Amino acid sequence: QVQLVESEGDLVQPGESLRLSCTASGSFFRIYTMGWYRQAPEKQRELVATITRGGSTNYAESVKGRFTISRDNAKNTVYLQMNSLKPEDTAVYYCYAFVPDSRADYWGQGTQVTVSS
């Protein structure tokens, strides 16, 4: 199966930056879409950003201009550069991947990002 391993989150202050990474391993040929979702306490999981293999990106309105998603196809790794972090960005961030080989969605274990002064 496909395993998504995320970097550790962190406790940061408002206005600071943090970079998350997620690397896929397992049995697959290509990953079409990779991205990040997040879930805050008492909230539903929501899309943060996605990126296709060809580089097309999609961002939640709340993070546009602050977050940047990128990927290294050779490394099967997706990154999320988070700048100007706000307390409302506090959530568990989940890496996501869609693998055409299995026509399945895969999720990382989740990593905690806390933005607080």
Secondary-structure blueprint:
Blueprint: E1 3-6, E2 11-12, E3 18-25, E4 33-39, E5 46-52, E6 57-59, E7 67-72, E8 77-82, E9 91-99, E10 104-107, E11 111-115
Parallel strand pairs: 2-11
Antiparallel strand pairs: 1-3, 3-8, 4-5, 4-9, 5-6, 7-8, 9-10, 9-11
For the biggest sheet, the summary is: 7 strands, mixed
Overall radius of gyration = 14 Å
Compressed to H and E, one letter per element, the order equals: EEEEEEEEEEE
- Mean pLDDT over all positions: 96
> Count the helices. How many?
0
The number of E-state strands comes to 11
**C-alpha termini separation:** 40 Å
**What coarse outline follows from CA principal-axis ratios?**
globular
Query: What kind of assembly state do the chains in view correspond to?
Result: single chain
Task: Give the class from helix and strand content and strand pairing.
Answer: mainly beta
The poorly predicted ranges are none
Fraction in beta strands:
over 45%
